[in-house]
Each structure stands twice: as structure tokens, then as C-alpha cells.
Amino acid sequence: MYALVDAVSFYASAEKVFDPSIRNKPVVVLTNNDGCICAVCPIARRLGIPKFVPYFQIKNLLHKNNVVVRSSNYELYADLSERMMNVISMYCDDQYIYSIDESFLLFKNFGGLIKDWHKYGHEIRRAIWKETKLPVGVGFGTTPTLAKAANHAAKKLEGYNGVAVITSPNSAKAILQKMDVGDVWGIGRKISQRLRQQDITTAFQLSAMSAKAIRTEFSVVTERTVNELNGISCLSWDDVREPKQQIFSTRSFGQRIVDIHALQAALTKHGSIVAKKLRQQSSLVKKLVIFASSSPHDDDSYYKQSIIYKYPVATDNSAEIANAISEIINEIYKPGVRFYRCGIGAIELESRRFQQPDLFMPDNSNPALMKCLDKINNRFGQGTLKLAAEGKSEEFQMRREFLSPLYTSSWKDIPKISCV
Amino acid sequence: MYLQAISQSLKTRIFDFQITKQSIILYKFTVAFIMKFIPIYIEAGISGFESPAAEYKDLGLSLDQLLITHPNATYIGQASGESMTEAGIFDGDLLIVDRSLTLKDGDIIVANFNGCFVCKILDKTQARLLSASKKHSPVKINPEDDFQVEGTVTRSIRMHQKSPELAACMR
Fold first, then answer.
1. Nearest to residue A321, comparing CAs of A408, A257, A384, A390?
2. Which of A15, A43, A335, A408 has the greatest number of C-beta atoms within 10 Å?
């Protein structure tokens, strides 16, 4: 048996944990640099506040409804996420943290002891609410894909109240019939469009397709999804926890950038973030995509440029990524363009464990140096030690105008408790 | 010739970084034997006694271990006001609050009372929040009040001298 536990609009819920004055109010959270709405709490959702729209476009709507607006408080979210994951881990024998607010659980050995999965799901919800004040949805399924579908039902469908269980073809049917095919785990936008053209609109219709036919028309990955929807486990636990296949770091600027050095510094900073993430999951990058663009909302004509950079020997070294950027910066930069956004993506990865060394190309990744860099930054804070090419990047600082206090990570911000 | 060969071979061994205890003793012995010098020990970090306490150095006392029983459910807050002084909680004290415990009558708790974190003594039977000070009267919890328990105060910490970390949040 598998389960997927995830928080209900995690960022917005996290904002309410240490601020009781906004518990009953509509709350939205903005992305980096306060650009877009990235989380909408259930109260705000009922008011019809949309997600993923630029903040400036619905500023008036938010104001009219007295919606509380917050910038992303990553320090707080990281701390609450860790607490939540730790509480969840006590309820299963294996846990895989899939994202900041989602975690897969596997019940292998003591699964047989649990008689009532429904009750157990509510027990998990109650414990997380009591200990962290975060609301979660719990979905159980006989495969990871069904667990994900059950989780969707638990949170989005009427009458499930936070817990849904799929243990039989019947319980699967009840949920999959009400589920849009695009909401199935592993079905992207392109595939769901093609399925819709064939009048396959619900998850149940997809599950009724012949897996073989799906394989010839789509891919072996989609075939696996169909099998999983029918309760046939295709994703092993190790597939679920496979490291990320691509790593991106990108952000819009607080102000527009017109200077080539400022652009290079910003790109290098993204490069360092990507390199750090690569090292965390023991991956090396073979192919990088480096991109920058102006804003589509500005009056000037839209400019966008991206370059693919291929390494002869895959690397996870921040300096080597910085070198790639300085090699191509003249191809990306264009004088006169007011750059609004830039970023780096590692689009082809290799595993460090299975790296094929090249007889004629030296490996310059210098793991010892990078380990030292990561250790210093973990201990004394990110950015304590960095590449000179990242610059003294004040203008690159995130704009977080509506930032809540760092309740759990800064002494001066700990919650005040009234004794009057 | 013979001795030269020995010392040559020892040099190579040393330059190969294959210093073993035996080779160093042998080297000392050879040097003394050849040159009739007072032996000079090679510093290879093996001289001197190891501190007899080395094995115990990880056993420091941890305040976290003493003060925090359920780290995932515990947060730290700061008291502000005088209503709990007779329970030993003064203005500016740190409160360690555990959300995982089952409430008992008379527990010192933190609650969300109408959108504000308050620290009070719980009177379950009469649904009241009591203060630990004669100047403050009990507060009745009415059904229309927004009330949620936010944990039990398990410890409080008094800073008898100013701490630079906390100075910023003390008025």
C-alpha cells in the first residue's frame, strides 16, 4: 500500500501557523520578487482569487476582498516542512519526500496491521494538525499513481474530507470517474490534449484503454501510467524516488537590467544555485541551457535568447558553470535590451556514481573544493562564500515587500505571546 | 656503500609516504647508529600521549535535549506582559511551547484567543483562562470567541543578563 500526504496550499497555510490574526482571513502568497500569486488559501479560493496570475493584474481584486498578501518566506516554509515530514515519518516504514509539501509513504511490513485505512488517514491528519497546525490531504492507493489520485480526491472532490482510499477496482472507479485526465500523475498538458481529441476526458476512461495501444500511440511511460491506474504496480519505490531529471534556477529581477556585467553576475548566481542542487543529489550536468529575456509586459519589443552549452566532461563545479556563462555572455547580451528575467537549467544530467571518465579529458570538477564550499555555506549561511563573478549583488536581492517574520529561524522574530 | 644503500632506501620509503611505526624506529636507530648522534624524532603526529579524554569529547550537555522533548511540535515564543508573574513568567521571558501534549486542568498554555497568542492557565471545568496575578481577573471563553489551544508551556527561560541575539526584540 502506498500513500501520498501533502499540505493544503502549503505556503498560505504556513503563513497562518504563527499568525493567528489571519487564520480566518483570505491569504495569498507571491512568488520570488512578488511577481505572481503562487498559493491561495481555501478561504481566498472560495472568493474566486486565481492562482498563477501576475500580482499587479489582480491587485485591485485582492484589495477589494481584504485579502492578506505575503511574500514567500522560504525560511519559515523550510522549517515547517521539515516538522511536517518528521511527523509523517512516524506513520509508515518508508518515506520519500517528493517536494517541500508532498511525501510518499510505503507500507510494507506493518501494512497488514492497519485494519481501517480511512481511520488511519484521519489519524495522520489529526497528528499533523495538532503538532504543526498544517492542514493536509491523505490519499491511499495500491500503486503510487493511485495514491496520487486518491490524494487529489481527498483534497478536491466533494465528500472526501481530506482522506481517500483506493483498495479495489470499485473504489478506484468512484474516484477516477470524477477526475480530469490532465490531473493524473504523469499525464502532461500535451498528452492530455491529444487524449481529449480522442474523447478521453476522465482518468477512468484512460484507465479503460488498452495499455498496449497506449504504448504504440504515446510511450512506454504513458503505458505504465495506465497500468498503474489499474492497480498494477509499475513504478518501483526507486522510480518514485529517482533524482530530478532537470534542475532549473530562474527569477525575474527586482529592477530591469541593462548592464552586461550585472546580467553575467545574475546568471552566475543562478549557476551556483544549480551547481549546489546538482551536488545535493549527486548528479553532474552534461548540457546547460542559459537564457535571458526582457519582459513581455514592457512596451519595448520582446527579446529572448537562450544558448545550449555542452560540457565535454560532465561537472557539478560552480566555477565550471561560471566559465560557461562567461564564454557565451556576449551571445546572450544585447545592448539596449532591458532584461527582466534570466536563468540557468541543467537539462541533461548524469549520475556521479556511474560517471564514465574520459581518457583524454581531465575531470576538473574538484569535488573536495566544492564539498568545502558547501560545508562553509551550510554552516554559516548561504552566500557566505561565493564566486567573485556573482558580484556584490544588492540589486539581485529578492524583492519581498510583504515578508512575514522568520518566526522559527531568527531570534528577533520569535512569536510574541501576550501576558496581559 | 651498504649503509648508504640503507639510508637511500629509507629515504625513498619516507618519500613514498609509507611511514610505518617500524620504519621510523628503524630510521631512528640507523641514524643513531651511523652518525652517533642524539636521535631526533621525526614528527609524524604520533609522538606524545593522546588525551585520555578524547573518546569522551562528544558528550557535551545539550540544552535542547533537556528542554525540548518533542522537537517537531515545539516552538519558542516570548512573553510580553505581567499577568503570569506569580507562575514565574515575567515580561521578556522565553517560553518553550509543546503542541503535542494532552491538556490537563491547571496547565499553563498558549492559546489563540480572538486572533492573538495569549499565555494563561487553563481552567477546563469552567471554560476560563486564568492569570497568575491578582491584578488580572479570569477570562470566560464564550462560544462566539475564536479560541484554539496552541500548545502547553513546558519551560520558561529568564535571561538575567541581556543577550545580543534577543536585544533586538526587547523594547
1. A390
2. A15
Which carries the bigger pLDDT value, residue A227 or residue B18?
A227
For the whole model, what pTM was predicted?
0.74
Joined grid coordinates for residue B14:
619516507
DSSP assignments along A320-375, one per residue:
HHHHHHHHHHHHH--TT--EEEEEEEEEEEEESTT----SSS-----HHHHHHHHH
The 10s digit of each residue's pLDDT in B127-137 is 999 999 999 99
A255's grid cell: 529592477
Which of A79, A129, A420 to mutate to probe the B interface, most B CBs <10 Å? A420
Residues in chain A closer than 8 A to B121 (CB atoms): none
CA B148/CA B117 separation, integer angstroms: 10
Residue B49 CB neighbours (<10 A)? 5
Q: Inspect the interface and report whether the beta carbons of B77 and A415 lie closer than 8 Å.
A: yes
From the number of C-beta atoms within 10 Å of its C-beta (0-12, 13-18, 19+), residue A312 rates as exposed
DSSP string, B65-80: HHH-S-GGGEEEEEEE
pLDDT along chain A (420 residues), means of 10: 94 96 95 87 94 92 95 91 93 87 88 88 96 96 94 90 93 93 88 90 92 87 91 78 75 84 92 92 91 84 90 92 95 92 89 82 87 87 85 65 90 92
The answer to whether the Cα torsion of A218, A221, A222, A226 is positive or negative is: positive
CA A248 remoteness from chain centre: 11
The residues on A that touch B, with CB distances below 8 Å, are 18, 20-24, 83, 86-87, 130-133, 407-408, 411-420
- The H-assigned helical ranges of B39-161 are 63-67
- Residue A352: predicted pLDDT: 86
Residue with the bigger pLDDT between A298 and B78: it is: B78
Size of interface A-B (CB pairs under 8 A): 94
Q: What angle do CA A63, A68, A73 make, to 5 degrees?
A: 135
Residues of B designated catalytic: 83, 120
Subunit contact A414:B99, Cβ cutoff 8 A: no
**Contact list, A414 vs chain B (CB under 8 Å):** 75-78, 94, 169
**A167 with A111: CB under 8 angstroms?**
no
pLDDT tens readout for residues B24-38: 454 444 444 445 555
